[in-house]
Amino acid sequence: MSVAAPLADALAPFLADPSRAAILLDVDGVLAPIVRHADDAHVPEPTRAPLIKVAKGYGFVACVSGRQAAVARRIVSIGSITYVGNHGTEILRGGATEVEIDPEIAAWAERVAAFANAAWSEELDLLRVRSEDKQAIRAFHWRGAPDEAAAEGAVRALAARAEAEGFAVHWGRKVLEVRPPLRMDKGRGVEKLLTGAHMGCALYAGDDVTDLDAFRGLRELVAAGELGSALCVGVRSDETPEPLEEAADVLVDGPIGVRGLLTTLASSV
């Protein structure tokens, strides 16, 4: 795919000085195509190849995911870059083996697990809702369920119970996350990564409502003088939330569009 003129123009500061440019990317729906079963997600080799070049030539490269950081690294299969997981609460730095976890968030893991176990029902099981243990977050997926509408209805009932018991809930693409009532978002992760990093510009590419926080985080860093400029890239699909399209500076079409973006970035290093 050739990069459209508006995007090519927006990438000019990155291409001009890669050493002072940060490239931040969501994983699912951005680098890795959305799949029916989350465990099957992977980044295709034609996308990994330019990403590896970008990782070697740009000032800072990271993946920012709602998944656990170690899982995101497995999906992308590049160990030299940094991974922010669980919506900003985990950091797995390039080459490291130990995940840095926010202790305030980690303290909630047992309470979230206890709620999830108590709230699980035979109905959810029969509807093929899948529960994913992410330590201080419990995710409930219904993508690919035989009756997705019925499964979503059951998950919404679970969400109401979670809120009544004092937990925070967050909705994604056919997934509910039950979280501690604390700030947990990709913007927080982006701010941690780039504050004091002395980057001139930064790009973030995302496809879901959770990525709006990362967009805000980048723009706040510009306002604070930590960055000279920011580029928020929305990744379109047939499930693209309207707020993401409205908030993005530019749009690309799916993971193939992201591959084109990475290929353009890689051309300067």
Automatic annotation (TrEMBL):
Its EC number is 3.1.3.12. GO terms for molecular function: metal ion binding; trehalose-phosphatase activity. Its cofactor is Mg(2+). Keywords: Hydrolase, Magnesium, Metal-binding. It holds the Pfam family Trehalose_PPase. The keyword Signal does not apply. Gene3D superfamilies: HAD superfamily/HAD-like, Trehalose-6-phosphate phosphatase related protein, domain 2. Pathway: Glycan biosynthesis; trehalose biosynthesis. It catalyses: alpha,alpha-trehalose 6-phosphate + H2O = alpha,alpha-trehalose + phosphate. One of its GO terms (biological process) is trehalose biosynthetic process. Removes the phosphate from trehalose 6-phosphate to produce free trehalose. Belongs to the trehalose phosphatase family. This is Trehalose 6-phosphate phosphatase. It comes from uncultured Solirubrobacteraceae bacterium.
